[in-house]
């Protein structure tokens, strides 16, 4: 199906001005950046008088489409329709672009056009400004060309994407509920088993280290597995796009070679806090500088229990509390050794693992369903805007 092509500036008013007729005493909806979720929804709204916000904030009206302009909010997908606003107009963060459609464009259709990975990748490539303060300029939006089908076709496409997105959200809600149930049960079970007693993790470790730097020079088509931070998932190690090394015969290689019973923890960057027991098929592998090896005293601490605990809500709370650095967070060995873990027997740890594994099995099924629905949604978006839906 062939659609006509139009620039966004031809079918939208981009960042429209505030009407001069607004009454200063009138109540307006107010949306800080946090109010717009990465799931394409308005999570909450506040209420302000026009006088409070008419200067220094972005104006919009019910029915407009909002999209974040600043990094990393833009790349993370912060955008939303505004039909749910309680007031007919509102104000929000200056880091929003506002799109107000003309009569031949549906807001729902436009929203899905700008709320997808392809648009975000293109927008990120056209950002201006310095690192940490990069923004998508209004000129990029004005020049952006889109295929514009007739209104009825826009309505059909938006309805299909609404249904697919609703299914995806419903499955994610079920996953979140199960995750919360697991966390609550785990916390209750551990408190009961330990009577609230804890001990520093360092008392249960025989060894702790992290990988060496600049191991890319050892990359090889075959050899020993090299585990990077992106390979460490919560309670599992990914085998997607694996890297191998021809490890040297030196002290660093001997120090960073993994053993049976090791637990791997990511200690720097955006993926900090991912943790997994080393599986048997990866014994003898090596780790990057962003991954720590925790080697528990097996007579006192089971690796699987340690992994499950550090991945729990309480474990993650401690990781978030003790990490240092803002632009590139990290954990040092002293902080890791200071984590407080429940003081319970090895037999109690085994029973805890059995419960946690049952939850993880159900969560794994739910996560797989979520991935499938997200993939379906992305595929439908791609087909919709290429005239193939």
TrEMBL record:
Keywords: DNA-binding, Restriction system. It comes from Bradyrhizobium lablabi. It comes from the Bacteria. SUPFAM superfamilies: DNA methylase specificity domain. Belongs to the type-I restriction system S methylase family. The lineage of its organism: Bacteria, Pseudomonadati, Pseudomonadota, Alphaproteobacteria, Hyphomicrobiales. InterPro entries: Restrct_endonuc_typeI_TRD (IPR000055), Restrct_endonuc_typeI_TRD_sf (IPR044946), Type-I_RS_S_subunit (IPR052021). This is Type I restriction enzyme, S subunit. Residues 5-173 form the Type I restriction modification DNA specificity domain. One of its GO terms (molecular function) is DNA binding. GO terms for biological process: DNA restriction-modification system.
